[in-house]
Amino acid sequence: MEYITFDFSSKIKTFVSKFKNKSGTEEFHFTFQPLCWGYAQDQLEWIKSAYSKAIEELGLCEETAIFRRFLCSDLINQAQVLEGLDFSSSNPARSGCAVSKVSQPPCGAAKLSLWAYHAAQSGEAVKKESGRSFVSFTPNSQRHIFSASLNSMDAESSYLQTYAVFDELAGRLDKNSMTLKDNVVRTWFYVQNVDGNYKGLVDARREIFEKEGLTKDTHFIASTGIEGAWDNPACKVLLDYYAIDNPAKNQIQYISAPEWLSPTHIYGVTFERATSIKYTDRIHTLISGTASIDKEGVVVHSEDFFGQFERTVQNIDALLSQAGSSREHLAAITVYLRDPSDSGPAEELINRCFPGVPCLLVVAPVCRPGWLVEIEGIAITPAEQPNMPAF
């Protein structure tokens, strides 16, 4: 993994990871976070300017964009600002990619921060198609879909909204000849008032998974379930997902590290700790939201932020190791804090534990109140597996 830092302006920090191997498809992960106070409109312009300069420096065109996620301090009041630029529009016909927007306040002076993912071949865009809030891309023979902001406000409870969101997901998958069990490899659930509404999501998801054949004896889906809101306060559950068409036999591997952290089902939750997807020249390892937990499912280092951060990193190391990877292969991470006053120590720990890795640090309470920090990420590891599909 190649890590690049751009200093285009004192107002914003720009981090990039770049991966290229024999298939010829290059992958880029970017993070942009403003460093000083400014109105949301101003900060969005700073981000857009740095973004344009970064892709130019890297020899990319804008059409190589696949996915952008804006993490916002006050999305209800910032949604109109974001929709005012094609770059940050939810409509892929304007933005050229899938765009997710979540109310998760960035730490520090930022009102907005951005994670972006690009895929390119010789600097040019891979084959892409778009629809309502989703983009599919086909770097070689296999089609990939990123979709953003699935929601339903026809019901009031998080339980019923989760059912409605999965119904919408099933419809979209069916149109693409996909299923939840066979094709969805990563989900992000954003839950308004996670302390009060997470149980409704958990219960509904477990029931739906059982009907779809997703159990502890088959597999679940790598996931993050975290505090987050949309631009409509009636929305209690918001979903982003990533799916892969026609996976090859043994291409997808479900990762666990039971000596370090328990399976999720022992405390009633249904997601994989991590999932690896194998290609001819690389392995993608999708690390679910990971916290300070032990092999019995118990919170470790209660009320100790430093201890929890350290244990979380150890758990991530264990998962990466099981996938044949390590921290040096991380392409991007997101760090979620329950308490914004922990942001100073968190930045120091991130710089020490994940030097150079594109990272967003936001305030978003974790699904269990005792957890003070959660980290998710993606790793891209070089490999030689000629029997697997090319990326």
From TrEMBL:
GO terms for cellular component: cytosol. Gene3D superfamilies: RutC-like. Pfam families: Ribonuc_L-PSP. It comes from the Bacteria. Signal peptide: none annotated. InterPro entries: RutC-like_sf, YjgF/YER057c/UK114. GO terms for molecular function: deaminase activity. SUPFAM superfamilies: YjgF-like. This is Pyrimidine utilization protein C. It comes from Sedimentisphaera cyanobacteriorum.
